[in-house]
Write a structure and sequence with these properties.
alpha+beta; single chain; 6 strands; six-stranded mixed β-sheet
Length: 110
């Protein structure tokens, strides 16, 4: 499965091109109950294989939360590097690789 190309951003991490996307519209739960965080989808730009889904520790800005902290390209690059160290192989097809961010560190979700 691949991510849609519309609305993606490009990023180069350790010489490899990736595209990443954050869902712009909040889900019903995120907007009405202020629960749920931003999710980032990442895939290799030239040889799409396994998709990386990053469950961040940052609340969705459309939720009912006073604190908004954006996801920057440097955050995304750091999380991609951590996911690769955890075993994500971006150019190899397979199931979605899920990680959760806790305290700035990525942890694989099984």
């Amino acid at each position: 499965m691949s991510i849609p190309k519309k609305g993606t951003r490009k990023i180069i991490v350790d010489g490899q091109p990736f595209i990443w996307l954050i869902r712009r519209q909040a889900t019903y739960t995120q907007s009405c109950y202020a629960c749920g965080n931003l999710h980032v989808a990442v895939e290799h730009a030239e040889e799409p294989g396994s998709v990386l889904v990053i469950l961040t520790d940052r609340p969705h800005p459309q939720g009912l939360t006073p604190e908004v902290k954006s996801v920057t390209p440097s955050d995304t690059a750091q999380w991609i590097r951590q996911a690769v160290r955890l075993g994500w192989q971006p150019r190899r097809s397979g199931i979605t690789f899920n990680v959760q961010i806790a305290g700035g560190r990525a942890e694989k979700i099984y």
